[in-house]
């Protein structure tokens, strides 16, 4: 005896109308499909992401065919001829969301989705199912704020996809992974230098051993992370000493993440061969001469 599947279908549109916005979620929905339910072959003019909650089915693109089941996502790219069909015995149950906008192409690229790689298998504890459900609930509430809420959920989805798909892209070569890790370290220091961060905190944040990070960082930049961070702080302090004459040396030091003004002054002299006060006087005089 064949199992009986009750067909269900729910969809809700974004209450905010799309007018050339940079990024916009158009609608979200969920469905328990009937056996052999098929969509396409057809093309869409927006991105359409599906997450399979139950059952299985087949997704066909211009490039290949995928057999997908619980925990799989597939992203339909605009302008691509696709079709997807539910399994005869275990038709899939899925959630979906459609999005568009001028920044959508770049966002999808950052996530690692391409027409040749449109499929993602999620891990346990994924935010994707709850995010798609949150979009649908927000649209059902029919409030203007649903537009922003849906974007928040979309970024959570894209963030997880980027993390999962980057694992696959990193596997072939270790060299590219080292360069990527060093870029992450530089970005971390460039955005956090104003806070009293430590190299240990950065290593914990990136999830790597300190000895390993220090070694690869020095290989790529010629400097240890400690020296790089200190040089970065001194460079930022020089800028403040030049451009913000109303700040005291102590305030400049604190603004670049060094709470000990005496330590700051010693390190400044080490890198610049003069004290912060002397440097400020010198650049002020040079500025006055250039004006006259």
UniProtKB/TrEMBL annotation:
Keyword Transcription regulation applies: yes
Transmembrane segments: none
InterPro entries xrefs: AraC-bd, Homeodomain-like_sf, HTH-like, HTH_AraC, HTH_AraC-typ_CS
Span of domain HTH araC/xylS-type: 183-282
Domain of life: Bacteria
Example GO molecular function: sequence-specific DNA binding
A Pfam family matched in the record: HTH_18
SMART domains named in the record: HTH_ARAC (SM00342)
Keywords attached to this entry: DNA-binding, Transcription, Transcription regulation
Protein name per the record: AraC family transcriptional regulator
């Amino acid at each position: 005896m064949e199992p009986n599947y009750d067909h269900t279908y729910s969809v809700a549109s974004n209450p905010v109308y799309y007018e050339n916005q940079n990024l916009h979620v158009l609608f979200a929905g969920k469905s328990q499909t009937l056996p052999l339910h098929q969509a396409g072959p057809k093309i869409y003019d927006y991105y359409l992401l599906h997450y399979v909650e139950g059952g299985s089915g087949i997704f066909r693109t211009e490039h290949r065919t995928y057999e997908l089941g619980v925990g799989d996502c597939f992203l339909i790219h605009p302008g691509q001829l696709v079709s997807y069909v539910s399994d005869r015995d275990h038709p899939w149950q899925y959630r979906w969301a459609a999005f568009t906008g001028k920044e959508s192409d770049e966002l999808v690229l950052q996530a690692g989705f391409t027409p040749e790689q449109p499929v993602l298998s999620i891990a346990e504890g994924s935010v994707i199912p709850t995010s798609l459900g949150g979009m649908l609930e927000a649209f059902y509430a029919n409030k203007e704020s649903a537009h922003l809420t849906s974007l928040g959920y979309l970024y959570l989805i894209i963030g997880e996809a980027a993390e999962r798909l980057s694992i696959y892209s990193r596997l072939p070569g270790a060299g590219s992974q080292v360069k990527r890790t060093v870029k992450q370290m530089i970005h971390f220091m460039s955005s956090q230098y104003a806070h009293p961060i430590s190299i240990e905190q950065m290593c914990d944040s990136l999830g790597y051993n300190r000895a390993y990070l220090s070694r690869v960082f020095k290989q790529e930049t010629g400097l240890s992370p400690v020296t790089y961070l200190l040089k970065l702080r001194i460079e930022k302090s020089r800028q403040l000493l030049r451009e913000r004459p109303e700040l005291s040396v102590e305030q400049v030091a604190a603004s670049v993440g060094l709470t000990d003004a005496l330590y700051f002054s010693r390190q400044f002299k080490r890198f610049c061969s003069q004290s912060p006060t002397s440097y400020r006087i010198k650049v002020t005089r040079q500025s006055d001469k250039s004006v006259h």
